[in-house]
User: What shape does this take?
Amino acid sequence: MAIDKVTSASITDSAVTSAKVASGVLQPNFRNIIINGDMNQAQRSTSVSSITSSGYHSLDRFRHGINSQGTWTISQASTVPTGQGFNKSLKMNCTTADSSPASGDYLWIEQRVEGQNLQYLKKGTSSAESLTVSFWVYATKTGTNIVELYDKDNTRHICQSYTISSSDTWEKKELTFTGDTTGAFTNDTDESFSLLFWLGAGSDYTSGTLATSWASVSGAAANRAVGQVNHADSTSNNFYITGVQLEAGTAASDFEFLPADVNLNRCMRYFYKKVSTNPYGPLCQGMQIGGNDCMMQGYHPVKMRAGPSISVSGSWAVESGTTNAVFAIGTQRSNQFGWSNQQAISATDGSGAICYGNNDSSATFLASAEI
Assistant: This one.
């Protein structure tokens, strides 16, 4: 049976819209530079409270910049825009207010990106791609907010403002930034770029003129967040965001939903968490290598960005032969593929060993290669 060819005549003009086209191609896979933009992954915790400092606290890949601007509970929420396909959002809940930020205070949500993932943007050339950011936002505080693209490699940035018009109402925002013909991204696994959503800022960041064209940040920090409202000025304030997408081109396409396993694997390149899950859940295996030395070894679920820092909490136990000991991170080595830890335990040379939850179903093992 012959199969008819697809021709230009079989595609009507009405079937092709700007929302379906990004950077000259029909919705390429992985067009979204942002990982976990649908906020579905939260390996560290679905809710953390009393947050007053910068770091990765809750949802995967989203870092918070906080410098003396309120106290926050950060969580994965089920409040989402209706009928858009989302089931999770990132929530910021102000629990201690700061209505008068000092000059150097700041508050933002960001995602950092490896340089090797950005080469197709052709930054630093005459063919540099424009970038479009789209997202859904819901906030108690109305008014002007700032989105910033920050080029760490060349200390350059560009900013745009958007307005939250209605309190506690989901609103979709789309912002397009021109391509930067100055300064290429380094082709490596380190941080080259970040997308920042400002939530508050002191005068060090607001007293200039908003940098709506690409410019140097050096000596011009005052141009980063001009006009930004203060979401930390009341304990009644909440800020939700979801559907974060950053893509090449001058128009926002529909949000790119990825399968949950693909999304999780992308997150685990930067961080993963193992939990015992039952009182004797296994962690890793090893072997007695001599005297009181037992070498335990594990493998990362995916190749990580770099050799991670490793930590454990709760109670893990090592058993070699008939000997038991408490497992602790001591002399450990790690790379992108796996890790080993030299455990002090006395057993017969060559004996196999296993590490498991020591009657602790919530014992955890963390590996972080964040940027």
Summary: The chain has two domains: 25-268, 271-368. The CA atoms of residues 149 and 195 lie 5 Å apart. Helices lie at 203-206, 260-268. The two ends are 54 Å apart (CA to CA).
